[in-house]
Amino acid sequence: MRSLFVLAVACLLSACAQQSHVQLYPGSPLPGAQVLTVVVPNELEVQSINGQQIAAANWTFGTGEKRLDLQPGAYQINAFYKNGFDIDGGMSHEVVRGRTGVFSIDGQAGELWKLQFNQPQSLQQAKVFESEFNAWAVNTRTGERHAAAVGQRNNSLINNLLGTAEPTDQQSSVAPLDSATASTPVAIAPAQGAIAPLPTTVASETLPHNDATLTTLQQMWQLLSPQSRAAFLEWAQQ
């Protein structure tokens, strides 16, 4: 009986260490030869796929990688580094949230793509990701490699205040960018100096009327360039 218990525990631990498979297309599961699979390291948190927040994309069991099974096609995956480090021999703990990387993938059925980056070996190395995050997506079949574009910072005052709100309707699947069934518009990065419109989920929120809100808005204004201030004033007058 004891040997059976030990075997069961060993099997459970082995399963937890394996990759987590997540189906992000509608309908019944399809064979691997008919889907596009994207492997996401456990240290990366998926912020959005094609402009949609997909909670299932961050489901994980143990410390293994996540395997996202998608319909073949083009995808834009926003993901950032997130990991905890022990400080002073484990007396305290610090979580590093890196800058977002925008991974562009155009995959065919049966292909396996991986999101990759150079793993930091220390807290100091990880904190570099807060300002710059060099990452890439690679096609394991062809060796094709695309560098991730620079996304938003995740540790600034602005993003803490106006960060993406929790979606009211959790999505469990996402269509390719080139699919006629894609119903949610993809957020396009604004040109430098332009002001991006706030997502509707954020714009619907109301900030409290108090001194803290006023101070925060004043600080945000000071961070804007002259071109951004002019664009904002033009928008406010509409």
Q: How would you describe what is shown here?
A:
- There is one protein chain.
- By secondary structure, the protein is of the alpha+beta class.
- It contains 6 helices and 11 strands.
- The protein has helices at 2-17, 123-127, 157-162, 200-203, 211-223, 226-236, and strands at 20-23, 36-40, 44-49, 66-70, 73-87, 92-97, 101-107, 112-117, 135-139, 145-147, 149-150.
- The strands form 2 sheets. A 6-stranded mixed β-sheet has the order 1-4-2-8-9-10, with no helix packed on it. Strands 3, 5, 6, 7 and 11 form a 5-stranded antiparallel β-sheet that branches.
- The longest helix is centred in the N-terminal third of the chain and has 16 residues, at 2-17.
- The radius of gyration is 21 Å and the shape is globular.
- The N and C termini lie far apart (75 Å).
- The model is unreliable at 4-18, 160-169 and 183-205 (pLDDT under 50).
